[in-house]
C-alpha cells in the first residue's frame, strides 16, 4: 500500500468518524439523513429488521427499527418525538398502538418486564439502520491498514484484528481501529497490540492515534503504553512510520518475549525523519563563539521550522532571504525578541506585582512580562480557531498586543484550563507556531528569570502533553501553562563563561546546535591579496591551541567586506581589524603578551622598554598603518598562502 493511498483511506474514515460524531450529538439530523437514504437500501433494512420474532418473543430493538423504517418508506410523520412515543408504547406493552402490525402484537406482549431501551439512545437505535451502508468499506480499509502496519514494521507473520464503528456492542461509536498482535496469542484482548485508531470523540478535526496499546483483558493502569496522536487535517505518514519504528517496534516484540534489531528492517532514519525529530524539539539554543551568526540564524531556524526544512540548514536560500528582507515575521507578529542580561528578573519576564501610580504610591497590581504575553498570544490564536470556546465577532478580532482587549483575552484563555488534557491536546494539534528568541540566554540567572516555569518549558510538560503541568502563578494567582506551539530559541556566546555552561537547567531542557566559524562564506573575499578565509582560519587554529575552541573568532566580522567597493575594502578591513578583532584578542588573552604575539605577530605590537621594569608591550593603532601597504603586508605574515607555496 502506497503512503498516498493510505492517507486517502485514512481521510475517508476520518470523515465518517466525524459524521458519526455529528449524528450522535444531533439525532434529529441523523433521522433526516436516514430518511434520505436510497429506497432500495431502506427496503433491505425493513426486511432484515422484520425478522424480530424468536420463540414467540419479540426483539424490541429490531422491532422499533422495523417500525421506523416502515413509517419512513410510507412517508408517515416520523421524528424524534414520535420515536420516543414508540419506545414508550413498547416498554408499556401498549399493543393498541401497533394495530397496523397485527403479526407482532402477541410476541410484543411476551417481552420481559422492564425498559428494553435503558441502554439505547435514539442514536444507538438508528445506528444499525445506517451502518450496514458503510460497513464493508470500513472493514476493507481497516484490513488494508493492518497490512500497512505489517509492511512498515516488517511483521508479516503477525495476527491482525479490525474493529469498525460498530464494535461498541453494535451501539455505534465514532472510533474504529486496526491492530497487530502476536501469533502466539489467540485473543487480541489478551495481547499487547500495535494499533491505529481513528477517533472523532474529542476533536472536531478527527484524531489519529497510533502506537502500542494493551488489550482490554490485560490488567494495566492504562491501555495506552506508547502512543502518539496527530490531527487528520495535518496528518504526516512519515512521522507515524518514524514513531512506530523507533518507539514501538522493540517494545512490541518484548511484550511476547521476542527480541529484534535496533529497529525494523528498512527503518534507518532518512533526512526527512531526522528533520521531524529535530523539529519536535521546542527549545533550541544556537551556541558558539562571537561572530558565528547565532542571532542572524535564529531567523533561519524559524524559517526552517515554518517551511518544514532541515532545522539547521543554514546554506544559501533565496526564498529565505526574501522572507527576511520583507520582515514577514514582524508583520504577522508571531516572533518576539528579547536580550537577557545579568540583572534580568522574573518580574520582567513573567509577571510583576508592584506598579507605581502617578503620585508615586505603590499599587499591588501585576503586569505581564514578555514570556507570559507571547504564551497568551500563542494560546489565543489557537482559541480563535477553535469551536470549543464561544466567541463573539468582536472577540475574534481581538489582538494580544492591543491593551484594550488584553484582559478580555486572558479571561477567554483561562477557559481552556478547565478542559480535559486530551481536549487541550487536540486543541493545539494544528495550532499556528509562535517563537520567542532570547539573545544571550546564558547571561541571566535562568532559575531567577523563569522561576517555576523552567520545568514547564519541557516538551512533555506543555499544555496537552503527556506529563502536562499547569501551575498557579504566585503574583496573579492565575492558572498558567506553556503552550506546545511556542518555540523558545536562544543564543549563547561560548566566549562568555559567566553562566553559559554552569547552568545545567539549559542543558537539560534545550537542544544545542554548535555554531563554528564558516570559512566557506569568506572564501571569495580577498582584499589586496589578503585571503580573509585563510587569515581567520590560521588565527583560530592558534586560539584553539593556546586557549579554547569556544574563544574562536566568527566569520561574520568580515562578511561586510563581501559587499564593499574595492576602493573602500582596505579601510573597512582596517576598521574591523583594529576595533573588533584586536579588542577580542586582548580580552581573551588579557596581559598575556606572549600569546597575543603568537597570534598577531610582531607587526601589530610595539615593545616598550622601561628602565628597571623590564619589557612591556602595547597594541599599535591605525595611525601606525597610514600606509595601507604596511597593513596588508602585516596581515599576510599571519597565515600561509597555499597558492604561494605551490608556486615555489
Account of the protein in words:
The structure is a single chain. The protein is of the alpha+beta class and 648 residues long. The protein folds into 4 domains: 37-133, no CATH class; 135-268, no CATH class; 346-514, no CATH class; 519-647. It is built from 24 helices and 22 strands. The strands form 8 sheets. Strands 3-4-5-6-7 form a 5-stranded antiparallel beta sheet. It has a 5-stranded parallel beta sheet with strand order 9-14-17-8-18, sandwiched between helices. α1 (3-25) crosses α8 and α20 (532-546) packs antiparallel against α22 (593-600). It is elongated.
How are the SSEs placed, and which strands pair?
Elements lengths: L2 H23 L1 H9 L3 H12 L2 E2 L2 E2 L1 H14 L6 H12 L10 H8 L12 H9 L4 H19 L5 E5 L11 E7 L10 E8 L7 E8 L9 E8 L5 H19 L15 H9 L3 E6 L5 H13 L11 H8 L2 H4 L3 E5 L6 H4 L1 E2 L2 E2 L5 E2 L3 E2 L1 H15 L18 H11 L7 H7 L6 E6 L6 H5 L20 E2 L6 E2 L5 E8 L10 H6 L1 E4 L11 E2 L2 E2 H15 L19 H23 L4 H8 L4 E6 L3 E6 L8 H9 L5 H6 L1
Parallel strand pairs: 8-17, 8-18, 9-14, 14-17
Antiparallel strand pairs: 1-2, 3-4, 4-5, 5-6, 6-7, 10-13, 11-12, 15-16, 19-20, 21-22
